[in-house]
Specification:
The complex is a heterodimer.
Chain A: H1 6-26, E1 38-42, E2 46-47, H2 53-68, E3 76-80, E4 86-87, H3 89-105, H4 120-128, H5 131-134, E5 150-151, E6 155-157, H6 162-170, H7 183-200, E7 216-223, E8 228-235, H8 240-243, H9 250-261, H10 268-281, H11 291-297, E9 306-311, E10 314-319, E11 324-328, E12 336-343
Chain B: E1 2-5, H1 6-10, H2 26-39, E2 44-47, H3 56-68, H4 73-79, E3 80-83, H5 89-101, H6 105-108
Parallel strand pairs in B: 1-2, 2-3
Helix pairs in contact in B: 2-3, 3-5
The chains are: A alpha+beta, B mainly alpha.
Chain lengths: 359, 109
């Protein structure tokens, strides 16, 4: 049998399709253009949870609906990133996770389009974050990141992986003189990743969009202008407020809620606050539920330290001086995003007793 | 008396609670290192230093899990010694807290 070159094969397929369409037309039938239509999901100019929460969530919701919701008709989806003028690191991580889920759930190799028209900062941020590597695509950035961020590559997993988690800190050893890894930071990141796997995607929860396994994503960055280190862990699960009732220490949380709010029906931020406070005040009473406390321990007393948790429709920020701020939003973030932020000095002034892992 | 260094003998990057959630878990450490020695009534020293850190779930499952596994608290205190320096000192406190508050499997579940 004669072998056909790949180029000729493609040509034959194209010719065959054209003949098939013509044959349909000749028989008086219509070629259905709708099956080949393209749906465009356009991003807003500012993608940031802090500065433009509503529009950012609306964009992410439309993205998920178009890409992941069950379809009755066939169409291609084009996620247009050209309008973005400013993209924050946390949203970049959530967006990258959505692209990753798309490729996993649909078993689909994504393609990059019009990347030359993206804002350079967007191109560089996504490239430095390793989004294209994660999706098996070639990076599109052609210049060093001039936004003054040093990012670690986005990592993801459906298992806890101490080595991967450790790398979120270890990579700063290259750019920060005297950098020493903080065991508490490792513990906090590990708690977050394990919470995502073990509790973030509960069996009884019917998600609006299919999960890509019990998966977590994590990254970290350094802003040399403010010398701030930030660490992120994200999951696309039900959100902490939803998963709390299944946790073994829910009775304690209910008691705390009753003390604080009486018969008031708790919203998501109240649930987050109660979970954090129960963890902090009832340490050791139960063998679960200490995760949030360990996460907050990392920033307690650290200069400019804060822990921000966006989960469900709630947001909570825990500061180094143990102040807590809460906020409620109209929309679900689509999972849980945990962010630690603190001055890099917290990692460069080790006590004499602390072992230096970088030696 | 046997000395077990978690960093040298088990892993430098301890994971989470259960084996099913990934390698280097507290359950794995307990079953492979602690239980075989404690069953022989052998005194052991566990050295915590040198790892990247410990999640509370790792420590609770490894050490608090001994009580749930049927080892009495007194026996655990008698046979188990913890060695930790510097930043790892806090983990020693946590371990004993977990051992002392963990309930036996028969009572708890």
């Amino acid at each position: 049998m004669r072998r056909i070159a790949p180029k000729t094969q493609r040509q034959l397929i194209i010719t065959g399709l054209a003949r098939w369409r013509n044959a349909i037309k000749r028989r008086g039938k219509r070629y259905d253009e709708r099956e080949h239509q393209e749906i465009r999901v356009s991003a807003p100019e500012v993608l940031s949870f802090q500065e433009n929460f509503a529009a950012t969530i609306a964009f992410l919701d439309e993205f998920r609906d178009r890409v992941l919701a069950p379809r009755t008709e066939s169409y291609r989806v084009y996620v247009d990133l050209k309008p973005i003028k400013r993209l924050s690191v946390p949203v970049a991580i959530v967006l990258a996770a959505e692209f990753h889920r798309w490729s996993i759930v649909r078993n689909y190799q994504l393609r990059i389009r019009d990347s030359h028209a993206w804002a350079p900062s967007v191109r560089n941020l996504l490239s430095d974050l390793g989004v294209f590597d994660l999706l098996g695509l070639r990076a599109v950035a052609d210049s060093p990141n001039d936004d003054n961020f040093t990012l670690t590559r986005l990592i993801s997993g459906t298992k806890t992986d101490g080595y991967k988690i450790d790398q979120l800190q270890a990579q700063f050893g290259v750019v920060l003189a005297g950098f020493t890894k903080n065991p508490d930071m490792f513990a906090g990141l590990m708690e977050a990743a394990e919470n995502a796997i073990a509790h973030g995607y509960p069996d009884g929860y019917k998600p609006k969009h299919q999960f890509a396994g019990h998966r977590w994503w994590a990254a970290s960055c350094l802003d040399p202008r403010s010398m701030t280190l930030r660490f992120f862990v994200f999951d696309q699960g039900a959100g902490i407020p939803f998963t709390l009732p299944t946790a073994t220490f829910y009775e304690q949380i209910r008691a705390t809620l009753a003390q604080l709010f009486g018969d008031f029906i708790p919203n998501d931020s109240v649930m987050l606050r109660a979970a954090l406070e129960v963890g902090r005040t009832r340490t050791g009473l139960d063998h679960r539920g200490l995760g949030l406390k360990r996460m907050s321990d990392v920033v307690t007393g650290a200069e400019n330290g804060s822990l921000r948790i966006l989960s469900g429709k709630g947001e909570i920020v825990y500061y180094a001086d143990e102040r807590i701020e809460t906020r409620d939003h109209d929309s679900h973030i689509g999972g849980t995003l945990i962010e630690w932020s603190m001055n890099a000095d917290a990692f460069t002034n080790p006590s004499e007793d602390m072992p230096n892992e970088n030696d | 008396m046997k000395t077990i260094s978690i960093a040298d003998d088990f892993t430098k990057y301890p994971g989470g609670r259960y084996k099913k959630h990934g390698k280097g878990s507290g359950e794995e450490f307990r079953e492979d290192f602690l239980v075989p020695n404690l069953e022989k009534d052998e005194q052991i020293i566990v050295v915590l230093d040198g790892t990247a850190g410990y999640s509370s779930s790792f420590l609770e499952e490894a050490f608090g899990g001994l009580v749930r596994r049927g080892f009495g608290r007194d026996r655990v205190h008698q046979l188990l010694k913890i060695r930790a320096d510097g930043a790892f000192k806090t983990y020693e406190t946590m371990i004993w807290q977990f051992v002392d508050t963990s309930r036996s499997e028969n009572l708890a579940h």
